Amino acid sequence: MSSHAVALEAPSTTPQERRPALAGAWVVSASTILSGTLIYAFIVLAARVLGAEGYGQIAVLWAAMFLVVIVAFRPLEQTASRTIAERLARGEEVRSVLRSVTIVGSAVLLACVAVAASAWDFLADHLFDGSDFLLAMLLVGIACYGIAYVSRGAMTGARWFGGYGLGLIADGLARIAIAIPLLVVASQNIAAAAVAVAGLVGALVPLAVGRNRLRALLSPGDGGRFPLRATVAFAGPATLIAAADQLLVNSSPLLITLEGGSAKTAGLVFAATMLVRVPVFVFQGLASSILPNLTRLHVADDPGAFQRAVVQTAGFLVVAGGLIVAFAAVAGPEALKLFFGPSFAAGRVELVLLGVGVACYLAATTFSQALLALDRGAAAATAWVASATLFVGLYFGLAGDELMRVSVAFAIATLTDLVLLAVLLLTRTRRA
Which candidate, 344, 277, 290, places its Cα nearest to that of 47? Predict the structure, then answer.
């Protein structure tokens, strides 16, 4: 038997291996912290060079790109990650999983291109003040990160967390490299290209480095083929979760723009939310390991270890969120001006509320990953959609300026999401 075939055998599961939900997460989290630092370096560079007005459109590009990408392709990443982890734990082939996910991903990308082409002038005018280049970069970014997210699903499903981390670092370095000319020229187009193209580099580098390791996933093996309809069945609720997630986390600049607010206001709100979202970047690394590891615990039929892993992970992330709340209370407004420039001014109360929302969001996302591992995506999606609807309703219904409305709506909506998901998970685990 070849070494590649050996890699597909069902791994032995010792008691020590069954316990942690975060196996491999610290390698990825270290990479995520570095990647997050590079992201912040790019955002600070773009904001200080372009100013609040010019940076506002880059904020809209960033928000729109990740809104579409995460809604369209993160469900496919999660489908690949969970299904590959489950089938490898049972000694089954995974080539059919990769084929199904790739087919669905290609169809989704073609749909995005068709929608953009049919509404080109409307989207360019309403999102980017008529800039065709920025809209083109939005499409390029969607395609690049679509490839990146599907490849991440394969890597985490195979539990090659080092490859996932390598992709994150390559993504951040590529964005900085492309943006270097901003040091000498204030160009929205350069910043937009950096936002869009970095994802492709982040996808290709780990695929090239780990080609021999990942080639093993294409080997034939035992077990029935994973049908296309199974991809759609799991990705459907995950898509609703991703859409609601992005409405909560990334849609604020878009809501402000659609309401008729200025690009300067959108840029300020985006900068304020980015300041308190450091734990969210860290969680992206943790989340890449939580879903496949919890799936393995579920397959191993160890409910006690499963529950402990979920509680411990959620507790750790709430503490991280609490530190952000403390930071926002002590030095939030000063830090915002220090990092982004004197034109970025926000109140202490607003930043504290955003920090509270981040803490609730992190714990809620942990519970959501646990429900996905239990194949209870439809129940989790119900909670997310309700919370996202509450967020949008509160934003448009509350009085006050844009940042205050975003802050209050985000804190209340994420707390609601946390409570709903906790109840669903508690109900499910008690029945088990």
Answer: 344
Q: Are 82 and 372 in contact (CB under 8 A)?
A: yes
226-241 mean pLDDT: 84
pLDDT for 6 beyond 60: no
State the Cα torsion 35-39-42-48 to the nearest 10°: -140
Whole-angstrom Cα distance, residue 297 to residue 164? 21
SS3 label, residue 222: strand
Q: What is the mean pLDDT of residues 237-265?
A: 83
This prediction's pTM: 0.71
Helix%, strand%, coil% for the chain, nearest 5: 85, 0, 15
Distances (CA, A) of 203 to 27, 165, 349, 350: 18, 11, 39, 36
Per residue, what are the HEC states of 76-106? HHHHHHHHHHHHHHCCECCHHHHHHHHHHHH
Q: How far is CA 425 from CA 268, 302, 414, 430, in A?
A: 37, 16, 16, 8
Structure-block tokens of residue 322: 């609490």
**Structure-token match 């934003």, residue found:** 395
Q: Which of 15-19, 71-75, 205-209 shows the lowest per-residue confidence on average (mean pLDDT)?
A: 15-19
Percentage of the chain beyond pLDDT 70 is 87
Q: Which pLDDT belongs to residue 2?
A: 34
CA angle, 39 then 365 then 201, to 5°:
30
CA–CA distance, 155 with 80 (Å, rounded to integer): 9
Beta bridge partners of 222: 92
Model confidence at 51: pLDDT above 90: no
C-alpha to C-alpha distances, 162 to 26, 28, 156, nearest whole angstrom: 10, 6, 9
In angstroms, the CA 145 to CA 197 distance is 8
What confidence tens digit (pLDDT) does each residue in 274-315 have?
A: 778 766 666 666 666 677 777 777 777 667 777 777 887 777
